[in-house]
User: Which sequence fits this backbone?
């Protein structure tokens, strides 16, 4: 069995129209002569010709960097990521979505950064957008919700920093590299947030959940601007209906991801504070934009995020009150 330094893990779902471009980019990676690496493709229960495309590339791919194919029938990005981690032989696992195109030196930059930063449990880089059509006005306000990261930082920085502006951030899953040792030791196999499932966007936040476990265990999370990928954004993902569903999904995951940073006894105390803040933002948006919410796609999507976040906390607070009532009844 070959010992690999690096694994490129690809979650593919109905990717027959996208996978070829990604594999072509991986076939022309530079400065990898001294890196032993593999490609693991996890087919997340596709219904198209994704498997056929992979087989065609496998037949003509160099043996020094094998392409391995696995079918994961459980729908959801977290299931696919877990399966990739189980199958990956590399000590560092770099995740690419099937609509991501890495820069020619992405593998080399990702591997060298991991070697130079042995305490890094996970790290990511710049994610540029390739838009099929012009995005809506003010789209930059919500671009990060589509895993577009174009920060101006020229040097790497650690999210574990004491700087409050950095400490509250975490990178997206697109282009994320995870140290397998850190994952195996600290990330549960049953992540609550499953990620996109077919057309559903109500369980977003699976990346944040995994990264919270790593950071809580003491692993460093880094941003490395030398790593660059390009995220293809089709017209359908820039339309109002999709963006509103996407940001609502982000909002609905807020309670769970926010509470990861608190002890169980603290959560009932901070939930009302988050609810008040979300309600304040939603009301402010309503006053600021009024009827413009019908035409301003970005503002309308942000409004959905605030309502979704408020709803997530209301549900949780209701569950807490129900549990407390049951406990008191049982104690009588």
Assistant:
């Amino acid at each position: 069995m070959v010992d690999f330094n690096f694994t490129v893990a690809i979650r593919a779902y109905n990717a027959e129209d996208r996978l070829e471009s990604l594999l072509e980019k991986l076939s022309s990676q530079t400065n990898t002569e001294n890196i032993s690496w593999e490609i693991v493709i996890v087919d997340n229960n596709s219904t198209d010709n994704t498997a056929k495309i992979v087989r065609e590339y496998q037949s003509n791919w160099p043996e020094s960097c094998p392409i391995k194919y696995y079918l994961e029938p459980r729908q959801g990005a977290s299931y696919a990521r877990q399966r990739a981690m189980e199958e990956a032989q590399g000590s560092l696992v770099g995740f690419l979505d099937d609509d991501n195109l890495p820069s020619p030196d992405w593998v080399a930059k990702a591997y060298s950064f991991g070697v130079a930063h042995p305490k890094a449990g996970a790290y990511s880089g710049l994610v540029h957008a390739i838009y099929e059509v012009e995005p809506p006005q003010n789209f930059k306000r919500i671009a990060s919700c589509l895993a577009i990261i174009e920060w101006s930082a020229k040097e790497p920085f650690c999210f574990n920093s004491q700087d409050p502006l950095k400490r509250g951030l975490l990178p997206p899953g697109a282009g994320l590299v995870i140290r397998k040792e850190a994952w195996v030791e600290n990330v549960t196999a049953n992540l609550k947030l499953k990620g996109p499932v077919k057309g559903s966007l109500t369980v977003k936040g699976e990346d944040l959940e995994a990264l919270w476990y790593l950071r809580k265990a003491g692993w460093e999370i880094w941003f490395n601007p030398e790593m660059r990928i390009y995220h293809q954004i089709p017209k359908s993902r820039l339309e109002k209906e999709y963006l509103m569903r996407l940001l609502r999904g982000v909002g609905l995951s807020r309670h769970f991801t926010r509470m990861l940073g608190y002890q169980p006894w603290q959560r009932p105390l901070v939930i009302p504070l988050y609810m008040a803040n979300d309600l304040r933002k939603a009301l402010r948006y309503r006053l600021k934009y009024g009827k413009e919410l019908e035409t301003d796609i970005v503002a309308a999507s942000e409004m959905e995020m605030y309502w979704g976040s408020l709803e997530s906390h209301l549900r949780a607070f209701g569950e807490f009150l129900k549990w407390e009532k049951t406990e008191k009844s049982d104690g009588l």
